[in-house]
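Continued from yesterday's entry.
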Amino acid sequence: MRRHFVAVAETTHDEFERILELARQPVPSNDLAGTRVSLVFERPSLRTRASSVAAVQDLGGNYSMFTDAEIGLDTREAAEDVARTLAQTSTIVAARVRDHQVFSRMRSATGDAVSYINLLSDQTHPTQATADVLTLADHFSDGDPLGLAGRTVTYVGDATNVTRSLATALIGFGVTVRIVAPVGYDLSSDQCAVIEARARYGGQLQCFTDPTAAVPGSDALYTDSWISMGLEHEAEERRRVFRGFQIDESLFDLAPTSVFLHCLPAHRGEEVSHDVMESPRSLVWQQVRHRTTAMYGVLRWLEEK
């Protein structure tokens, strides 16, 4: 039976730890020799596209790239038919999509012929979360994710797909995850339940509405854009609501030994200040490097015999 990586919550703890372990094995390699990967981008991408291409090539595989203009999921052609077509030439389909339900539809259409990787959907961003764990483990515990137990990571801003994936991944390694968001932009009770079900080693989920109450004692601060793709029509209202949720120098200094993370693209002057982005305590570019490392682990795990 073929494996899939469409959400951290859909892997077991052992499976996710194995992905992280495989991510750190030497490259280049021939682990993907003879493997064809279709990369489907319904949404724009820089880091995800660059890291996916690099990882496939470094592992000795072949790839084909398809954009929304070429495929038109559910506009030009039904997602099921796209999946059936790609299954004729590929064994892995890695897709960045608007609607998370596309993955279940594609899987139903292709059975056990293809493995799927979620490169971002409206619900989750599991490859980003994988890179985030690798980044934090490098900084705090010599690369051992289990060494993160007892740390506190605070996310400030809109509780997005990135937030949920980050929390789901970290709470399983004993991390206390604090989510600070305005009312109406926070996690739902159902989303909290999914995250909390993954808790191990004392990991906790804590929710706040005041950044100054949540940040002290944090080991890392994390944020994302206030205006995600597809929400541009809400830009003015979101800037008003999130005023006071920017990670600037004064907020950063409430946790003076903390590091800073951002999944990018960053909007300096909105969710983060320029000085925090460029601070020596910023791990943003290590995160970018680990986007490729994360893909090594995911691709190897899918093809592992």
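--- second protein ---
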Amino acid sequence: MEFVFVVPRDDIFPDCYPHGLVPFGEELSFESFEQTVTEHGFFVERPRAEQEPAWKQVIPYTALVRDDEVFLVRRLKQGGEARLHDKLSIGIGGHVNPVDLPSEGPRNPIAAATRRELEEELNIEGTWDLTPLGMLNDETNPVGAVHVGYVQIAHLTGDASVREVDQLKGDWTSLEELARLAESDANFETWSSLLLPHLFAALPKPTPTA
């Protein structure tokens, strides 16, 4: 049975339940979020976690960026989460498992889970640097009600392709094309729809070609 990492809802949201992306900054620092994860997180059986709104499953959700391109994937029907089939996504990530927990030091499994998920889902050539972006929350659907996203941008030097070709289809997509898809109400998963405006704002505008 799969065990996943959860944090009590009241520890993540002591005052209110935000909707969408809360950028890391003065209101919420990534250090304080990671401290909450380290101090209050624990592992439970995934079926139980999926039915318990008092817990939030922490999901590293990473946008892979190369210059003015973003890696865009479509989740195929063979994928494990039926509620996300045929959805477009700019976030690579998944559940945090016990294997991600450091053997020593602070009990923060996010970094190891981020690397594991990227390497499980993608073939990556080159190196990447991670930039924490914010916390993503959505209470409007059953998936979002029991998950919270730890959003990051991975700036890649090199190339990437889908490893799990039976579950994902993906390729690099320009920022212009992503904006066109968003304006045309393409079938993005909810988290990606909420993240896109913040991603556009966080990335430098492409330089026009002559």
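The radius of gyration is 17 Å. The first strand starts at residue 3 and ends at 8. Will compare against the first tomorrow.
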